[in-house]
From TrEMBL:
GO terms for biological process: 'de novo' IMP biosynthetic process; purine nucleobase biosynthetic process. Its EC number is 6.3.4.13. It is an enzyme of class 6 (ligase). PROSITE patterns: ATP_GRASP, GARS. The lineage of its organism: Bacteria, Bacillati, Cyanobacteriota, Cyanophyceae, Nostocales. This is Phosphoribosylamine--glycine ligase. Its cofactor is Mn(2+); Mg(2+).
């Protein structure tokens, strides 16, 4: 079968890499892809925008694409699944109505409250003055405010247009203390099955300091998500969410990603829902997946996930270290030549490309803030993390930056250490 993947990041490279391990996959096409997918055997890039629905559908129909997998949230929120389904294509990813669970934080909070899903107390404001009396922010895309002054400054920036039309209202919620856990689950709208829980490192600086980023590293499976906690997440979060979506007439097929905050006492609340595979969590989860990925995704699209046996996993652990451009998450340079990828892979690491492209000389160059995901796999976390760092030492490009403490909690045994 032929598969088309929409997106150009490390997540999409990892999806293509995993699919191509199966004898059932003839070819993977990435739209638009990156430098890594451009040179991977069995994969090709198609230079179309992720929101060029007409161009994507025309190519998919002409080339006999069996399945379209949508990576980023933006095309999902714009209705790519609805459009392609209308053309007769099978798509892994929720319809536009379902993608609201990520596209509208206010809509998602209302759904959680209606469904009785544990989440932070919150309120929605459309004016800065009212918002400033409401509390502290605590979620992705805005600010984790640890003081009232920080919260008020963030509110002013939002209503002054920092986030464009997305700043017409603000969701303010209580600041939760604990550790974040990412639970990505596959669903066909009836059955929902979680993948291995992962833990991301969002802060740019070592010791989890500095600005929030898209993620500077990750590992899986995170020990803080115990079997007991995952059993509760299944019944109190995932199944309630799917039932609530179904009650609204939304046929949700794809990934439902719950971002949790696990408190010191082991209790948890949902910070947010996302409507797609996480990045960089996907890059540490897929190397441990033993069940063929295409079997799971097709079962979701064809609404027969409940017929499959339990998802099979390899033993051990996986970890990635993100190599970023200097200056990220602020301004950074592009088009810097990257060397050492081959040496890193010879050392045992797997390198997923994120912000890369090929230049006219067919050299791999930087093309984004998060450039490469250097991945290690081992019998335990110590081996996996050591393998990732053994690989990244070979990677070179002007301005390269990476954290040198990825996995510090799990290595030091301080899984109980908490942060806002």
């Amino acid at each position: 079968m032929k598969v088309l993947i929409v997106g150009n990041g490390g997540r999409e490279h990892a999806l293509a890499w995993k699919l191509l391990q199966s004898e059932q996959i003839e070819q993977v096409v990435c739209v638009p892809g990156n430098g890594g997918t451009a040179i991977m055997e069995g994969c090709q890039n198609l230079p179309l925008a992720v929101d060029d629905f007409q161009g994507i559908s025309r190519y998919a129909l002409e080339d006999g694409i069996t399945l379209v997998i949508v990576g980023p949230e933006v095309p999902l929120a714009k209705g790519i699944t609805d459009y392609l389904q209308d053309k007769g294509l099978m798509v892994f990813g929720p319809v536009r109505a379902g993608a609201q669970i990520e596209a509208s934080k206010a809509w998602a909070k209302a759904l959680m409250q209606e469904a009785g899903i544990p989440t932070a107390r919150s309120a929605v404001f459309t004016e800065a003055a009212a918002a400033k009396s409401g509390g502290l922010a605590g979620g992705k895309g805005v600010t984790v405010a640890e003081t009232v002054a920080q919260a008020q400054s963030a509110i002013d920036a939002i209503f002054q247009g920092q986030f464009g039309s997305a700043g017409e209202f603000v969701v303010i919620e209580e600041c939760l203390i604990g550790q974040e856990v990412s639970v990505l689950a596959l669903t066909d709208g009836l059955t929902i099955r979680p993948l291995l829980p992962a833990q991301d490192h969002k802060r740019i600086g070592e010791g989890d300091t500095g600005e929030n980023t898209g993620g500077m590293g990750a590992y899986a499976p995170t020990p803080i998500a115990t079997p007991e906690l995952m059993a509760r997440v299944q019944t109190e979060v995932l199944e309630k969410a799917i039932a609530s979506l179904k009650s609204k007439g939304i046929d949700y097929r794809g990934v439902l990603y719950a971002g949790l905050m696990v408190a010191p006492n082991g209790d948890f609340k949902v910070l947010e829902f996302n409507c797609r595979f996480g990045d960089p969590e996907t890059q540490v989860i897929l190397p441990l997946l033993d069940t063929p990925l295409e079997e799971l995704l097709l079962a979701c699209v064809q609404q027969r996930l409940g017929e499959l046996p339990p998802i099979a996993w390899k033993t051990g652990a996986s970890a990635i270290v993100v190599a970023a451009s200097g200056g990220y998450p602020g301004e950074y340079e592009k088009n810097q030549v990257i060397t050492g990828i081959g040496e890193a892979e010879k050392a045992g690491a797997t390198v997923f490309h994120a912000g890369t492209k090929l230049n006219q000389q067919q050299q791999v160059v930087t093309d984004g803030g998060r450039v490469l995901n250097v991945t290690g796999i081992g019998a335990d976390f110590e081996q996996a993390i050591a393998q990732a760092y053994a690989g990244i030492k070979y990677i070179q490009f002007k301005g390269i930056y990476y954290r040198r403490d990825i996995g510090h909690r799990v290595l030091s045994g301080k899984q109980g250490e908490q942060h806002p």
